[in-house]
Amino acid sequence: MKLAIDAMSGDLGSPIVVEACQSFAKDHPDVTLRVTGKKEELTELENFNNIEIIDAREVVKMTDSPLGVRRQKESSMVKALMMARKDEVDGVVSCGSTGAYFTGAMLFVKRLEGVERSCLMAVLPTFNGKGTCLLDVGANAENTAEQLRQFAHMGSVYAKEIRGISNPTIRLLNIGAEEHKGNDMHQEAYALLKGDEALNFVGNIEGRDLLEGNCDVIVTDGFSGNIALKSLEGTALGLMKVIKKALLSSTKSKIGALLIKDGLKKELGAFDYKSVGGALMMGFSKAIVKAHGGSDATAFRSAMELAYTMVDHDVVNKMKEGLA
Amino acid sequence: MKLAIDAMSGDLGSPIVVEACQSFAKDHPDVTLRVTGKKEELTELENFNNIEIIDAREVVKMTDSPLGVRRQKESSMVKALMMARKDEVDGVVSCGSTGAYFTGAMLFVKRLEGVERSCLMAVLPTFNGKGTCLLDVGANAENTAEQLRQFAHMGSVYAKEIRGISNPTIRLLNIGAEEHKGNDMHQEAYALLKGDEALNFVGNIEGRDLLEGNCDVIVTDGFSGNIALKSLEGTALGLMKVIKKALLSSTKSKIGALLIKDGLKKELGAFDYKSVGGALMMGFSKAIVKAHGGSDATAFRSAMELAYTMVDHDVVNKMKEGLA
Question: What is the pLDDT of residues A217-274, one digit of tens each?
């Protein structure tokens, strides 16, 4: 197995990627890592037999326009994606800007055969700790019912292969539980999902139940998915900020905060609101994994493991089968 | 001024409405209240000169299908709406099912001249305490750009007349800040809103900023608005539930909870997450006000005051001017 690793595009720069690559390379001697980035920052990786360094002088910045990636051919991100295009690697990992990375994948990596539209998937933490996959969360400004059916297949394969759920339940994001809810597209999507025997479709889900964890995969068009994801993310982060402010507002409340800390950690542990925000690239012919922009070495290493498992379980080809 | 009051359709039945009507009637001797409901439950209102009791034997239940309201002609809700239809009152207040009430208004109350689609508006509490109006939150499964422009006018008049904001800022819910974001409808809506000199349009807003309180009115189609509202409502309520559970999880945390109570109350006071969920009916030729289903007498009285202010400020006709 070969994985391309973009070492440069995250908020914390190359050091965290170097650290993650070192530990990953030791644990997976069978995997070749092709690391793109400024070679003078990657010297610590030189002595590994299973690491190749590909010098890349440009860096795609978080603040760059996503479309700018077209012209950033010398960047670590594009060089990593180009290896996927040329079948030189089985997967790519980057913690760069989601917009640029997705745009780059769209431009340079082949779409999976049979997939009309690639998309972004988020794995939402849920209050019951189970988690749920939501797609599309913003790659497309609109989608057809058939595209939603394809998203359901991709999400279902992911839930099965990566999350170990044997018969993943699927729901359609809608404005009510009944079959006739939503506009024509949603009604058609409902019928397609219900009629597809390979999918365990269990009906609509409303916005208020997104984090209840009562299904494994939620499909929606990219516009609604983006609005839903960002609404819940903004609410969770905003609310936690207010609560933190309250806890620090007086000596009395600071003592109180110490006393509730353990209980809060235990209960909120199941619902890691900070992890909302990352996204997976679905519908490409290679495993394209996005680590959080603010990833530390541990988080980046997890993203590498995810890419490894995706390739190891042949997830991409299994998605293709599901679509046929 | 005359207001129709549906006394029966809330979760807590007629007693809370009777109490609210008594106090309202005393404070507003100039207003005639036409109260619909089972007359034997409204005997305490008999002695008021400015209250008329209209016997209604049926009650629209929270669990009834919204479309059922077509056949519930003898219900307190429909009888109240019919008075609006016949110009016998200037406004209507009910705490019944939002779906049934809106459907009833659609069927029985005239749409405001020039309005293509009536809609539901929610006043969201924001972290900075200012609050913001979001419309449509679910009356329509889809909308045109022109309809969004009309929503902006209605929201703007509401913000000005009822919330006392002199030049309300307006934003379009979208998946990014740039003008070209979203699908054709959103791009057209952006152009219409920007080109309308009567509107103080200040650009797009993303889901994550909905509760930041950095604008007064947010317009969107009914599908996206419903998804946004319910996503943030579900997240806020779910998160508060988890936190409450944590606070009660041990003796230590219970003591901590007592110590943080005041600070928490103060900080969260600005953001009353419980009040998300109610909605106003916009685009009708009368003031149609919906109190929360679970309203107590104080909440119902507030809804009556809102209807009073809407009629007093001639909000409905001012909306008409804005649309011309």
Answer: 999 999 999 999 999 999 998 988 888 888 888 888 888 888 888 888 888 776 665 5
B272-318 pLDDT tens trace: 655 444 578 999 999 999 988 878 898 899 899 999 999 999 999 99
Chains A and B form CB pairs within 8 A to the count of 211
Q: Nearest Cα to B85, choosing from B288, B278, B306, B323?
A: B288
Convert A262-295 to b/e letters by CB count within 10 Å (16 or more is b): ebbeebbeebebeebbbbbbbbbbbbbbbbbbeb
* Paired strand residues for A200: A169
In chain A, residues 254-293 whose CB comes closer than 8 Å to chain B: 255-264, 266-268, 270-271, 273
Question: What distance in Å separates the CA atoms of residue B174 and residue A223, rounded to the nearest whole number?
Answer: 8
Tell which phi-psi region holds residue A319, choosing left (phi > 0), alpha (psi between -120 and 50) or beta.
Answer: alpha
B168 closest CA partner among B180, B176, B160: B160
> Looking at residue A324, what is its pLDDT?
67
Query: For B192-228, how does the pLDDT look when each residue is reduced to its tens digit (9 = 90+)?
Result: 999 999 999 999 999 999 999 999 999 999 999 999 9
**Could you report the per-residue pLDDT of B34-65, keeping only the tens digit for each?**
999 999 999 999 999 999 999 999 999 988 88
Residue in this structure with the two tokens 């036409």, named with its chain if needed:
B34
Q: With DSSP H G I counted as helix, E B as strand and the rest as coil, what are the percentages for chain A, rounded to 5?
A: 45, 20, 35
User: How many angstroms from the chain centroid is the CA of residue A23?
Assistant: 22
Measure A47 CA to nearest chain B CA, in Å. 44
Q: Residue B237: exposed, middle, or buried by beta-carbon count in 10 A (0-12, 13-18, 19+)?
A: middle
Quote the strand ranges of B144-222, DSSP E: 169-173, 200-205, 217-219
B162 in contact with chain A, both atoms CB, cutoff 8 A: no
Q: Locate tokens 């409340």: which residue?
A: A253
Minimum distance, in Å, between the CA of residue B163 and any CA atom of chain A: 23
Contact state of B228 with A229 under an 8 Å Cβ cutoff? no
Q: Sorting pLDDT into bands at 50, 70 and 90, what band is A295?
A: confident
**A231, B207 Cβ separation under 8 angstroms:** yes
The residue among A49, A58, A62 whose CA lies nearest residue A21 is A49
Query: What are the residues facing B132 on neighbouring strands?
Result: B124
What's the CA gap between B24 and B49, in Å, rounded?
Answer: 13
| Phi, psi of B228, rounded to the nearest 5 degrees | -65, -50
Tokens of B82: 């019919």
The 10s digit of each residue's pLDDT in B80-102 is 999 999 999 999 999 999 889 99
Structure tokens at A111: 């779409």
pTM of the full structure: 0.90
Which residues sit opposite A288 in a β-bridge?
A92, A281
Tokens 């001639």 — which residue? B314
Residue among B249, B251, B294, B256 at smallest CA distance from B276: B294
Share of chain B above pLDDT 70, in %: 97
How far apart CA B221 and CA A269 sit, in angstroms, is 35
